């Protein structure tokens, strides 16, 4: 099994559980109150018709994003792990404020339902499904908006985010104290993910030009229906490439009660390992294991129809399972990835997010995503968070006062003014280095 299968199997596991969704937040709303539903129209429950459409779109986005990341030469030989739903949720809230080509591109990349009712009710309904609770596992999701306190966002946008995505607003002073604002957001993410996702927004990611940050946080912890005995775990070789192996702890479940959903094709073995649950949503990890070291056999089945066929072909039978313990932590900055997937306008000077503020002054400066997963004999703990950072293209209110922030490498010159002679020239790459 190639090392990159670790990332693939966890992606498949998240897809199997519908990935993970946006949820309620208890932060105070200080910009605008949530509007009441129109007469005769209620926020949908778990059976809302749009859930299937949103779930299918999220899964396809997950397949597309996996391929985009895996195809990057910088990802060769590296683990991959992310939450498609965390990214979809944050960007769906962003999409609600997009207009024109900007919105068309985001909607296409995310495979969002074009019908507004299906899209919004789908996210709200899926949120209800995934947050209804279960005594045997923990699954929490949350969305939030973090707005510049002096910037006038449209009440309609704020209300839409709160009503359909449970994303309430907290006002922050990005313009006056961007660092304190960043720390506030990061603390919220840490709280929502049991401290598994730290420093989602890295230093310098928000600045006085930031006007809005849209966040999603996800946390899951569950135990296997059939747990592994730690006494059976042994150090064994794990092939990372032909002729190359590393030593890792391998768990074993080979007894007569090792009954799992199993299927195989000419090139692939498929295993479903369920998590214990009560009345909540059933969760499981789906593992796609190539019979040879060629990961292509697993990656080429990452489409909705093929994966559905494989899941239908699973039959419960005894399987001798040998599976690695592992912990992964990943970090992604996604503007170039999402641009390559078909939504470049949102990151450019041509971005149109008039649905947020009534102007075309906002653009996405970054989409950051961090994920964590730990797989052990007992079960799985996983968390992820996404931040969409919206900056302003120019100073608001017609203020043309320039902002000069020398918070990155720069070149400097010492010049004799009368003659213009350069006496000294230098570059500061790290002010703390000699």
TrEMBL record:
Sequence segments annotated as region (Disordered): 29-53
Molecular function terms, GO-annotated: serine-type endopeptidase inhibitor activity
Superkingdom classification of source: Archaea
This protein's record includes keyword Signal: yes
Localization (cell): Secreted
Record-annotated Serpin domain positions: 63-431
Gene3D superfamilies: Alpha-1-antitrypsin, domain 1, Antithrombin, subunit I, domain 2
PROSITE patterns (alphabetical): PROKAR_LIPOPROTEIN, SERPIN
Record's GO cellular component terms: extracellular space
Record key words, sorted: Secreted, Signal
Family: Belongs to the serpin family.
Name of this chain's protein: Serpin family protein
